[in-house]
Write a structure and sequence with these properties.
33% of the residues lie in helices and 23% in strands. By secondary structure, the chain is of the alpha/beta class.
Length: 433
């Protein structure tokens, strides 16, 4: 069959999608990009938030051409048999413990059965190969699956299971294969990257893993995502500082800074420790870029707590930040907490934080004007009449771009040196040196 795979949600989910594509191709099915040309579609859903589930449902309902629709991933795991009951469009469903069963689920659905697979979400991380869904020069590399932090607002442990590290030898082998295939930028991902190795080796092994990955020929940039703030140790900071391939980009979701809210959410660490961590990074690595995610409207968040968050953001100057309104998710502890904040208040608080975020980004970009930046070219924008790419300070999909002109032909995946001359709406514009 011709099969289209639609991957929703995070980069970790994308890796599962890439593995399912590999299994489908190995079984003789043909992956296609356009669902309108497919005999079957697999929708790998996100189920972290109700809004993500709603997006997945809308995507499924809009699929009119494929004769067979398989619903996979986090939403399937979250609602299990209700997916088949409430979505007549679905011909089969598989949860997060059953991605490797995609071929049998698809083929049973083609035979008119209604397969449902919900395997153990705590099994070892699958080592299935992948068909990359990213451009050839960049790839995500999963180092672990699941989460043991059990934050009060988060449904992930119930969807993805307990934290399980991959063996370092398997990660290195995969990274070497990716580099041999032309990948130049690797982004390490997990629900909590800093915990890597604690369950498998009895120690935090991320610094050691970084050192080994940086030895691989062909890899030019190594980027780290999803670092838990309490575990950004001096050793980890020092490793990033001395490894030239490891870009000075720290993705550290702090969620909030108020000690009372951090405690109620089950977050480890305090505001003072967060500030000290930021100071340590900036002292050790001048020019380091910090990215975080913040939640406004957590249960019990007062006007004073919110103002404290605003001042914290101004003080610490995170150059990149995602801001989210708290969503009371079914099955989480926070959904039952008193002091739920009104929707209008949450929306207004998000707008205020986004204004502060834009001010910080603009101020940071101004410091880059006139300086030489190494940029990974991602393509040519015909509308703008110039090339575009990313510098060390911009992660794939979530951050800004660097637009630049060149008299010579530049290919996607090439590294070039750009001198920015202006900044507009979070993006940089300039030309080659």
């Amino acid at each position: 069959m011709k099969v289209a795979l639609i991957s929703l949600g995070c980069s970790k989910n994308l890796i599962n999608s890439e593995q399912m594509l590999w299994r489908l191709r190995e079984a003789g099915h043909e992956p296609v990009d356009d669902p309108a040309l497919a005999d079957a579609a697999v929708v790998n859903t996100c189920g972290f938030l109700e809004s993500a589930c709603a997006e997945a449902i809308e995507q499924i309902i809009e699929l009119t051409e494929p004769k067979i629709i398989i619903v996979a991933g986090c939403m399937a795991e979250r609602y299990k048999s209700a997916v088949m009951r409430e979505l007549p469009e679905a011909d089969g469903v598989l949860g997060c413990g059953s991605f490797d069963e995609i071929v049998s689920v698809l083929e049973e659905a083609a035979d008119g059965k209604k397969p449902e697979r919900f395997g153990d979400i705590n099994t070892p991380v699958s080592e299935t190969p992948r068909i990359l869904g990213t451009p050839q020069y960049t790839a995500y590399l999963k180092v672990a699956e699941g989460c043991d932090n059990n934050c009060a607002y988060c449904a992930i442990p119930g969807l993805r299971g307990k934290f399980r590290s991959r063996g370092m030898e398997n990660i290195i082998k995969e990274a070497e294969a990716l580099a041999a295939g032309g990948v130049k930028e690797l982004t390490l991902v997990a629900q909590d990257t800093t915990r890597y190795g604690l369950d498998y080796y009895g120690r935090r092994a991320l610094p050691e893993l970084i050192d080994k990955l940086c030895e691989i020929p062909g890899i030019r940039w190594l980027r780290l995502h999803y670092l838990y703030p309490a575990d950004v140790t001096p050793e980890l900071i020092g490793t990033i500082a001395r490894q030239p391939k490891c870009v000075p980009y720290f993705d550290i979701p702090v969620q909030h800074c108020n000690d009372k809210l951090l405690e109620s959410m089950g977050r480890r660490g305090s505001k003072a420790e967060l500030i000290r961590m930021v100071e340590n990074i900036r002292e050790k690595i001048p020019g380091a870029v910090l990215r975080t995610s913040l939640i406004v409207g957590l249960p019990g968040e007062t006007d004073e707590d919110f103002e404290e968050l605003c001042e914290f953001l101004r003080l610490t100057g995170w150059e990149r930040a995602g801001v989210f309104e708290y969503s009371p998710e079914e099955g989480t502890r926070a959904a039952e907490m008193p002091g739920q904040v009104e929707a209008g208040v949450k929306a207004r608080r998000r707008e205020i934080i986004e204004d502060i975020r834009r001010e910080i980004i603009d101020a940071f970009n101004e410091t880059l004007i006139g300086k030489a930046l190494e940029v990974l070219c991602e393509g040519y924008d015909h509308g703008a009449g110039c090339y575009f790419g990313r510098a060390y300070c911009d992660a794939p999909e979530v951050d800004g771009k660097v637009f630049f002109t060149s008299k010579n032909i530049i290919n996607a995946g090439d590294f070039v040196t750009v001198i920015p001359t202006e900044t507009v709406d979070g993006d940089l514009f300039g030309g080659l040196t």
